[in-house]
Write a structure and sequence with these properties.
Length: about 400
């Protein structure tokens, strides 16, 4: 058991631990913002039956209701059931553990609903009848995109339409297959879009007329607009630009000294390509990826400082030279170590050279004679004698002490 002193020390230790915990709590960063949530819905009248991995599958398009907005959403987890009318939370690509999301991002960028519908059909070499209802037309575009997404996320292959009555009618099925083929053939890896917008670095420097940068923009998918004040934003080749994509780069330039500022803006903070997972157990229900964008406008700023280019000093002309006539070289009869009296009387006979000096003279003008050398030698001999005598006395004392 603890004595009184032990109890006192225990109370002090406990108070120290509690105080430290409170201090750490006060110093910790603020809690992260609540994740964006959305409710999964099935889109009416979008049912199709497709031959996926040699097996007929019937499915419908999905959408996610985020706040007051409803955006298309695609499945990236083919073998798991969707949690209809349940809330999903925004996550990251790493959290989803779904493969090939870089290529899925390309599919979303060039597929429905982000690409122009007519341009997508033309690029895929697909045609749809003019009398096809808007809902069915969107359904064809949606599933051409969705089957391409499944190809990368789950390895699903869309087969050519067989002569089976349960499959979607040939005019729609053929267009879906052509869009699918176009998207999976051309897909390349794209970066994960961000919920926030940033420019790195925040500032840079350059001389007037040169390029400052590069500046890298990270943010939502799609075009990110650049508004420049005091100069121009250009690409790597020096061509003016007004927008970039996520992970895109630009430079700032200005003809004279001064500052250039740039503001990047994106219309949506929750962009297509962001994943949504079922909270609590992400593997229990289907994983989803946004096809459209939602949220509010976001901005980021950066600036560059341009200094005047250094002016080149012109070489002086012969008339501007500070010494127009060369300095005459000394004649052999002139001595560089002449005394002041000699320099004052150039007609006087040249004196004999002074004896050379040595560094031990301390820089004195007096020559080093033999007397100081003799004194130094005598002092050295005396010191050696004293040292020898001292050693002898010490040895005698040691012998006397140990005897």
């Amino acid at each position: 058991m603890f004595g009184q002193r032990g109890l006192r020390w225990a109370r002090v230790a406990a108070a120290t631990v509690v105080g430290s915990a409170l201090a750490l709590g006060a110093a910790s960063p603020a809690a992260a913002e609540e994740p964006v949530t959305g409710k999964a819905k099935q889109v009416p009248r979008t049912e199709v039956t497709l031959q996926l991995n040699s097996k007929p599958e019937t499915t419908s398009a999905l959408e996610l209701k985020i706040g007051e907005q409803t955006v298309p959403v695609f499945c990236i987890d083919f073998h798991t059931p969707v949690a209809l009318n349940k809330n999903y939370e925004e996550g990251t690509w790493d959290e989803s553990q779904v493969k090939n999301l870089g290529k899925v991002q390309w599919v979303l960028t060039h597929g429905y609903p982000n690409a122009d519908a007519d341009a997508l059909l033309a690029a895929a070499g697909a045609e749809l009848p003019a009398d096809l209802s808007p809902v069915r037309r969107q359904t064809v575009l949606y599933f051409g995109t969705q089957t391409a997404v499944w190809h990368f996320s789950d390895g699903i292959r869309l087969a050519n339409r067989a002569n089976r009555p349960e499959l979607t009618r040939p005019i729609e099925y053929t267009a879906i297959k052509k869009i699918y083929d176009y998207l999976i053939t051309n897909a390349t890896d794209q970066p994960e879009p961000k919920a926030e917008l940033s420019i790195d670095p925040k500032d840079a420097e350059a001389t007037a007329g040169a390029k400052a940068g590069p500046f890298t923009v990270r943010g939502p998918a799609g075009d990110i607009t650049l508004a420049v004040d005091g100069g121009t934003a250009v690409d790597a080749e020096g061509k003016p630009v007004t927008s970039v994509a996520n992970e895109g780069q630009f430079w700032l330039t200005r003809d004279d000294a001064g500052k250039v500022s740039v503001t990047a803006s994106a219309d949506e903070s929750v962009s297509f390509g962001r994943v949504f997972l079922f909270p609590g157990d992400k593997n229990k229900h289907q994983k989803l990826i946004l096809g459209g964008s939602a949220g509010s406008k976001i901005t980021a700023k950066a600036e560059a400082t341009f200094t005047a280019a250094p002016s080149e000093s012109p070489s002086p002309t012969p008339s501007e030279s500070p010494s127009e006539s060369p300095v005459p070289s000394p004649t052999p009869s002139e001595s560089t170590s002449a005394s002041p009296s000699e320099s004052a009387s150039p007609s006087a006979p040249v004196a004999s050279p002074a004896p050379s000096t040595s560094p031990v003279s301390g820089g004195s003008d007096l020559p080093l004679t033999g007397s100081p050398i003799a004194v130094a030698a005598s002092a050295g001999v005396l010191l050696l004698a004293v040292g020898g005598l001292t050693v002898l006395l010490l040895r005698r004392r040691k012998l006397r002490f140990t005897a």
